[in-house]
Amino acid sequence: PSISVDGMLMAADNRLVVWGSEVVLCYDRTTGEMLWKMEQGFYGCTVQLNPDQTQLVVTGSSSSEEDWSTVTHLYLVDLADGTLLEQYTVPRVSDGDDTFSVIQMGKSAFSQDGTKVLLAVLQDSRYYICLFDLERGTGFYLEQSYDFLTNFCFTPAGDVISAGSPEESDSSYGMYDYY
To answer: Taking the model in full, what pTM does it have?
Structure first.
């Protein structure tokens, strides 16, 4: 199928995962055969491979049929066959106005043990970092927000988050101990 590609990654077992705004595809990278396809009706998709390369975290936003607000979902997907293992709703940024809350494409990071993921969410022209716990199915936002967010990660121990922006207008860097 022809899609507008937003990103791709190579994984174990000769898997090539390709995604666009509304679809995630998995191919055998040696034969080119499509192994599975995921379409959830979202837009603005981002995909991250967990540390042991068995699952994907797929995030995507869609419009709520009730009030047309934006709802962001996090999907835990089995890399082997594309089975949807879990679906979560990412919480909205508190104290935001009614503008859309959208996942920043290409910005997510797993903890070393694969139980937590960081997501960058854009709301009210600011970037917020959501720490989502996959075991509990809940997420919360760190206090700091950014005009521009370049990178964030967990420390190797997995108990501290590092985030920052090099922009002169918003030159900030944070270390967050979330325990």
So the answer is: 0.77
